[in-house]
């Protein structure tokens, strides 16, 4: 594990770390923000933040405006990459498949299956790696994400009940099996059998009986991807049918960018803190 | 004037604008954040934020974490570029001279004099351009900046008494005539006559009688450039001799990065608001 940088910020410290990943077979880079409450190694709740298409750990780290709230609330914030990367990792010229677009699944199709194991990476490997060096309290984990990362946060939480005590998303891809981004990615990573896709689709998971105690979602009404790719309407219907308390806030004028994410980041972190410190 | 992007953020709107500049003879790009208090064209105080070496308007726009505080306080925030740019603009391979390093002076030496007119651009042209499209209250202007931009903020305020009602800086180059970054830039832009440099050196301006009503400076103690390039000790001495009330806060553990700037940004904006709404 190599520390690439350490910067003091908002009273805490931001670490950027690279490690060799067992799951992806590549080096992976992530950032960890430790609030001042973690000084001296005191355990703090951890938020896993999953980013969207094209992003690395750096986008939310630089533009997410999360550190002030994490320092106030006492939350550790971890931002992983969105896929394996490197010259030996199968890629695609499109922005929405391959490197930068791992979709938080374990691929089952060649040539992707060897490296594209972001599901197991986020769920199993990364928590061990982070816990080996930073004082995360694994009894108090929350998960959130944006767009493809919102999909990742919802599906990981739905598929691993009890693991994450708080879940939220910004503009998540709520029903990937039913939209172009998702059908392309799930088809190529998982293969043509759509039954296998349902374990990686928040709406399908809910339809198939998976549950969350509650859920916060913010969605910009001026988001260019809303109707074709994100489909919060399907999430709303699925949660209503299943009795999952969903707080879905449609935000007038907001788009899909970090200017939207950063606006509501502190709200989400307070939502998580209220449940993680409960 | 071309609008390159408009994004809603923190209840206000962020505009990125490109215009043909009379002073630099090039296109120049800047960002303007309008807080919700400016809705409907209501005039609001304006903060000019001058960035440091290598930066464009984008760095602080993405990483500065200023929008939440500006939206709360009712401040318009303008972030210009740090130099003219383009294939026809004289440049230098070094990061600390030429494009990205205008030093907020009007160059007097060939081949820089034609384009490198960042002093007049920030002081005269940009306020007219911004006022033509956005509701800035020119009776209530504040100025701030980082590193080279802290130098720019201090020297523009000292050289134009009464123009800026509030002034602050993060890790400013306080005495450019006495440090490597400054002697290189001032020597090549202004020529060998050091008398001409004194009008572009905050410590020298104060020694020569220029005054500010008061000044806020934050400086990281772990800033790698502190002793060789920034010299807050010289600023402290000059302000003490001149009776300028300087609030110089040495911040343990903080470096020269945006992780430092963003930590204290809201504090600075509150400082400015207290004076601009006074």
TrEMBL record, chains A, B:
This is S-formylglutathione hydrolase. The gene is fghA. GO terms for molecular function: carboxylic ester hydrolase activity; S-formylglutathione hydrolase activity. Its EC number is 3.1.2.12. The active site is at 147 (charge relay system), 223 (charge relay system), 256 (charge relay system). Coiled coil: none annotated. NCBIfam families: fghA_ester_D. Belongs to the esterase D family. Keywords: Hydrolase, Serine esterase. It is an enzyme of class 3 (hydrolase).
